Amino acid sequence: MKKYSLSEVKQHNQAHDCWLVIDGKVYDVTEMIETHSGGKDKIVPVCGTDATIYFQTQGGNGSHSLGAQQKLNDFLIGELS
User: Fold this and answer.
1) Could you tell me the pLDDT band of residue 2, with boundaries at 50, 70 and 90?
2) What is the CATH number of the domain that holds 23?
3) What is the pTM of this model?
4) How many helices (H) and strands (E) does the chain have?
5) What is the β-pairing status of strands 17-22 and 3-4?
6) Cβ-contact 47, 12 below 8 angstroms
7) Domain containing 24: what range?
8) Which helix (H) or strand (E) holds 78?
9) Looking at the DSSP assignment, which residues form a beta bridge with residue 18?
């Protein structure tokens, strides 16, 4: 699996180019931002960051469903080095 540094991830910090780190894995979630059920305003602020806690707690508002956790795998591009 491809390895990315956090500094590489930080470069992808916009709605049109959004990568996240969750549990040490790197995801390119750009294509799902517009269709995110919670709205894009929930994702865009954490683009380019380690969003592990944010994802696990839905930004402090609960937790993501098992389906959401499984769908995340569709966006996996690598691991944090």
Assistant:
1) very high
2) 3.10.120.10
3) 0.91
4) 3, 6
5) unpaired
6) yes
7) 3-80
8) strand 76-80
9) 13
User: pLDDT tens digits, residue range 31-78?
Assistant: 999 998 888 998 999 999 999 999 888 776 778 777 778 889 999 999
- The structural domain count of the chain equals 1
Encoded tokens for 72: 């995340």
Q: From CA 79, how far away is CA 29, in angstroms rounded?
A: 14
- 16 half-sphere exposure, CB direction, 13 A CA radius: 0
**C-alpha torsion sign, points 30, 50, 8, 26:** negative
- The CA distances from residue 14 to 21, 29, 38, 77, in Å, are 14, 11, 17, 17
Question: Which residues, 6+ apart, have CB-to-CB distance to 17 below 8 Å?
Answer: 30, 47
- The owner of tokens 């180019």 is 17
